[in-house]
Amino acid sequence: MNHSCYPKLGNEKQIYYYKCAYSRCNYVAAREKKSHELITNILGIDATLSFDSLPLLVKKVESEIPESLYKEKYVCLSGAVNYNKENSSFIAGEILKKYKNHKLVYLVGSPSGMNNEEPDVIESLKKFMPELIIHDAKSFTEWLSVIKNSVVLISGRYHYSIAAMCFGTPTICFSSNTPKLDEINKMFNLPGCVRTHDEFTKALNEIDNLTWQPLSKEMSDLAEYNYNFL
Questions:
Q1: Is the pLDDT of residue 3 over 70?
Q2: Rounded to an integer, what distance in angstroms lies between the CA atom of residue 11 and that of residue 88?
Q3: What is the pTM of this model?
Q4: Which CATH class is domain 61-217?
């Protein structure tokens, strides 16, 4: 099992459920240090520190990723599992101030189609960003290209953020329903996820002063441990 593990520590039944599930696995690979700590120390299950497998896929298709699909510079946006539409006015306003002469691209695209909550998030942003482009990527490499060639990714989606980290694309992460994005950021000394208006503004103001390096090799090396059971 390759997993991010965040049970409610005060819930004994949930801890028991997790222990039972993990104990039936022949091999457990934890995606971040915090998950590894919880699996080994709280659940008492042997686990290997690894990573999500996405960087291995990126590495495999890197030569096939298209050049930028847009002539102009652009900001790449996506929502989050727990995205609050009431924040759309503020988020849009701050982005429009910072990136006045950029296209705004909302990226969707997965084998299963658009996430259920996506249309509502898009509609809430379009009220304040009427020029927002909805880019429905039709292939994995097209999806990667939109992230790789953007000026910045602003997203609360786990795999979007990991893809950006592979390429060194500057990223602002919205907090998600588990701490896994925060923990990945800690592992690679990247800025933490934003949870408030002030944190979002601060992240926008500081993003150009940070050094963003491609992390594909570091993440791929960790991800290889997913397959140590083979």
A1: yes
A2: 34
A3: 0.94
A4: alpha beta
